[in-house]
Give the backbone structure.
Amino acid sequence: MSNGAIIVGGTQGLGLMLAETMAARGDHVVISGRDQQRAEAIAKKLGPNVKGIALDLTKPHTIAKSLADVGPVRHVVLSAIQRDMNTARDYDIDRAINLVTLKLVGYTEVIHCLLPKLTEGAAIVLFGGLAKERPYPGSTTVSSINGAVSTMVHTLAVELAPIRVNAIHPGIIGDSPAWSEKQETIDRVLARTPTKRLATMKDVAGATLFLLENQSVNGINLNIDNGWLLT
């Protein structure tokens, strides 16, 4: 797979939208999900240049084996996320550890395993989220982890130079299934968003491609929120 891409978490949501976008233009893409059969089935639908593999970020000791046959790679996207509502009063330790492992240890282990396979001009994009800036009751773990993603970008961009490392932090994505039943929240956010529109899944895919392909963008945290954080 010469100069290909891998999208960890590419079997659903924003990762899948990115995979569809890249496959449509003829890119060679590996997508991963926790279930091998599901990943393969989705890859088959996306086209002959897409391969599906099983990879579980919450089990970091297994990641090297999952990535053994992947490469060479130019673009790495870590889009796998896990939504969590975990309050201090009803704190679930296992869920918190699971999420911390997924984003901090899992993301980093994927990068560790792929480093020998990265080609010239390689770029990495991590997915965070705007809960780091706009916390809500029960978001302590999510907000903290997404804040950590922001700092990971800086350390990795310095440590891995000349490989470029950036992060993307989507706000509310209006056409995402995750927000389909939260109209009250959507209306409230729209009312204070300067552009009076919400970002779309295609917007996030386009912004991710920008971070992957612009050779002068490095070490940044890009918010996709139509200026919501300004108000």
